[in-house]
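Minutes, project check-in
Item: structure for the 290-residue chain
Input as provided by the requester:
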Amino acid sequence: MCDLRTTSSNTSYPLQFIKAKEDNVILSFLYQNPFGSLFQRFAISRSVTVSMGAFYNSKFSKTIIPKYIQKNKIDMKEYVKKDYTSFNDFFTRKKKNIVFSSKKSDFCSPCDGYLSVFPITLDRTFLVKGVTYTLFDLLHNHMFAKKFDGGFCYIFRLAPHNYHRYHYFDDGVFVMKKKISGLYHTVRSVALEKKPVFLENQREYSILSTKNFGEVLYMEVGALAVGKILNHDKKTFLRGEEKGMFLFGGSTIILLFQKGILKEDERLLKNSSEGYEAVVQCGCIVGERK
């Protein structure tokens, strides 16, 4: 069961907020049971993740697709019809239609998922699920950490049933990228409440010079059973173009905006601080440029 809450607003992009109660026996054992923690390090290791990835890339994994669709109540009419060669081929399925607003000031979600928004404070820390993160720990770069002081952090948490491709939200130019090796914790709340997941997990980030939102940091975070973050190699990009995809598992997109770029959205900030997430789809409006 989930606790739904809708917040009224005079903005042009109404959002529904949800506080999920995730019941998963295996994850609860790994993260909430003292004995389970003994097995956790093994479960989130690269070797296990790579082995699982090999299976999900094999033709033998096709047999689990029908039950996965049924369990997660996935509406396959939204996706391009094809004969899938493996479970990962299914997992990275394409949507038929994704529409991004053409209005320059609209900030559209780069992916499907659950959105939380937090201010980046002057001392370069922000609070997520009771854990304080410094930008330096997240980025491993003092210069970039300072660049986003006073801005906003948008966190899009993808669940296993979501569309797992992600897109550019504006026209722009690629500036640089960095890859940070790490572990593969789940990004579900059961782990976020116990571990500094975003600091420990495998992640990549790019600095993008966008046409309408200035310089933005775009980060992909791997998760339990996500062996690969697949980014397309592009030097220039257009709003709505595909940036990349995650292989099997829940994953996360983090966007950092500089101070003074986006309007402050009291709904998102208030709900996020209380543990609620906005349910979003790729292309829907989730913010506005000042």
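Outcome recorded: Residues 1-5, 23-40, 183-200 have pLDDT under 50 and may be disordered.
No further action items on this chain.
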